[in-house]
Design goal:
Length: about 140
């Protein structure tokens, strides 16, 4: 089954909120844009707000070929992705990711199918190096 999150013609007014269930440390986000054959539905940039806090400058959206991981330092429960700039139409994403540092003491034992709970030692000088697919708090992959 393949599905994507998309709006019904919202273009740059598109938004989606992910509830992590409880407050979590957040080390990064990714939004992988979707597209239509006619060139519409492409999100070129997006904003992220955590628990309705301040909205920083927009991030460049990723593509299947270049995810464009965005390192951030935040904590919260509600993560809202809002389209900043799109080509219009049924904008959305093929995948949205919220990631946490792998050395987080409260990390859950099973994320993305990993039952071991093992976490390798982080490379502390580079937040982006602290992220692996199994460390994603949320991967709203192909959800409509």
């Amino acid at each position: 089954m393949t599905t994507e999150w998309s709006t019904s013609g919202d273009g740059s007014d598109a938004s989606v909120e992910i509830d992590l269930g409880a407050g979590q440390q957040i080390a990064g986000v990714e939004s992988i844009t979707r597209s239509m054959a006619d060139g519409t539905a492409i999100t070129t940039s997006y904003w992220v707000t955590i628990d309705a806090g301040d909205r920083p400058a927009p991030f460049d959206a990723g593509s299947p070929a270049d995810n464009r991981f965005q390192a951030i330092e935040a904590s919260g429960r509600l993560v809202r992705f809002e389209a900043a700039d799109t080509t219009g139409g049924n904008s959305g994403a093929v995948e949205i990711r919220v990631s946490h540092p792998r050395d987080e003491a409260t990390a859950q034992g099973s994320v993305d199918g990993d039952e071991s709970g093992a976490r390798p030692s982080p490379e502390r000088d580079d937040p982006a190096a602290q992220i692996e697919p199994r460390d994603r708090l949320s991967s709203a992959s192909r959800v409509r």
